[in-house]
């Protein structure tokens, strides 16, 4: 039976990828220290889609939430379950998850970030998950209090859905450090909550998770619209569009035209931020960091992807095609080298034998 289970539920675009990369790269070190990451990263993702019963769950997905719980229950030490998609669970789904992990001591970890940076990042993440809605449509819906997919991933609502299922001392809110803070500070905060000893994990210096520029993300949104019913599920879309277009091609482009919220919405963002902070100040939980870090820093005018011109789109599309040609050539070269290596290996074994 597990001693403690830390359920890291998100939110997306709050450094989750960085934290998860450290965890999974050091899985064996953590295991030797008595901390288990059950199943695999992909399995935990499938278990999340099962728990939430999302319509885009892959038909060939094999891992369920109950399977993940069963593996976690066999471990005598601490367990970490981490998937930012869990933040989108309803209160009933979160209650089911926490209840299923009993009698282990369940802790909920939520990570919060300022809205000025979060909203553009969340919309971009939606587009990278096959959304076709424009940036203005996304922002307008949120201004009207709509778009539960967004609100469910805010720190306030995740704490209500997940945090309410456990005692106050087991609710942890980590704030994302502001720009310019030490690179490892977010990891140090996470490790402190989960009890990972300092220096246990080897942390590989990796490039920041690059955002797409206004032109490139708008190009991807229009591509999603033209895809129609092709690649409708999570895994095929990630494998074909993210792995072969977004990562190796679009992210490697200039991405010069940065996008974000216009200054005409600055007052709304600041008012909403103060509301959120007041709610969190009144909510009993363990804050790691500072709620002041939820206030925007460096609010400057940016461009909306909605105003990208056709000529900019055409130029980006041509650059993407050129990038795809280079990427395909690289795949061909790697495949050729691998084939030559395998042939040499077989010949060597034959002559030696």
UniProtKB/TrEMBL annotation:
Q: Which domain of life is it from?
A: Bacteria
List the InterPro entries. P-loop_NTPase (IPR027417)
Protein name (database record): Sulfotransferase family protein
Q: From which organism does this entry originate?
A: Actinoplanes octamycinicus
